[in-house]
Design a protein that fits this description.
two-stranded antiparallel sheet, about 45% helix, single chain, 8 strands, binds zinc ion, two-stranded antiparallel ribbon, globular, alpha+beta
Amino acid sequence: MHTCPKCNGKGYESYYEDGRLVTDPCYHCSTTGEVDSLTYREDRLASVAVRIATQEEEDCRKAINNDPDSEGYSTHAAECWMSEWDYFSMRVYDRQDSVMGELSKLSIEQQDVLIAWNEYVCEPIVYNEQVVYDESVSLHREEVQDEEYCDTFDGVDDIPF
Ligand SMILES: [Zn+2]
């Protein structure tokens, strides 16, 4: 068994909503705090899909903004009545399934290489000068400590091999 990556082994997830600390049971591991090997692997492969989808959309955003004939990415977002960030997030989400479909066609060995590439090699993805995807951070999910978020991570020591 492996520590559930969603709740970090706690079985419950805490987050702030409207300034209030909310704690929910973790649906990913059914509050056991652990996932089986198959789920653990799928989770890590899904992270690869999120990275690729995020990078693709960021490339798309830049291409649109660099195209002199285009009205710009923010205009596309505005046409959908969305903020640019919500629009970006939605498009990343839409891309994930097809990327995951492509990844599932690869051999186990190829998938393992991509998982390692995602977790140990890649640079964070930056959108508008803000990090929007960093697997090394999501592996060390922020834990709610008392009333404030703890935003420090202990480096790479507890990355599960
Ligand atoms: Zn969990």
